[in-house]
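User: Can you help me understand a structure? I only have the sequence.
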Amino acid sequence: MTIQQTSLDRRTVLGSILVGITTGLAGCSALSDSDDDDSSTNSSGGVLQSVAVEGLELVVELERDAVDQLNLIDPSGELFAHQTIESGVSRTTLEIGTDYPIGEYELIGLADEETVETTSTTLEPDLDLTELRMGRDYPEEMYEGASDSRTEAEAILSVTNEGTGPTAVTALRFEGDIPFPTPDDFDESGDSGIYDPENDFGADAESITIPAAETVVIYSNTRPFLPVNARAKCDSVGEDGEFIVRLFATHEAVDLTRGYFIRYSGTDSGDCQLEIEEGA
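Assistant: Let's start by predicting it. Here is the structure, written out as tokens:
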């Protein structure tokens, strides 16, 4: 972690931001397990001993009683979050959430409104669709309570955040030669097309959080592999096609598009077999 001392002018300006600010950032979340060697963790032997992204928070280890305030400055130079440090505290958190400006942040430790130490950390999510599977092939991997009809028709996606900041997936779309592409009216209605694991009525999720350096399994909620449509495709045995999966996130810079090949083949019993593989 790079430690740098601010100039007198910078110190004066940032210290003055504190005047009149007494409330903390709203909201909190549980800390997730993280590896101390992860790229989202910065360490040093100074007053600000380590800075790590865990879940939706920035976790700071600091020297006891060395500072009484932390300011987090966003890439544009604006105050993004702050935290008062009580006597004896050596670990604290600042809420990041999933909707923040991407870039380099400056964390400033102050005592009596004077800068003691500063350090920088970068918050930048990076999504990758690491695996796409059909529920029909992995029924044991479907969410609890999934019906047979949903298991036959839905998709299982493993989404990895390889970046240094959290984000959230807000929409899932299937386009092309898939049995049942996402209906056009989903864009008009704003439906996400993502199954909500916290809703017992099969509703769409508004978003699914993808923390930094974690892989999260999400499920489609639009039946892209609908069997009745697949059987119609099997009228032409061995027909090959291509389809696209699009994932949208709270950060437009990490929206993801991935192409796949699909093959339809009929069986003597009249069933339709599907095979999918990632495109080049």
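Now, to help you interpret it: Residues 127-278 form a domain with the Immunoglobulin-like fold (CATH 2.60.40). Residues 87 and 188 are 53 Å apart (CA to CA). Let me know which part you'd like to focus on.
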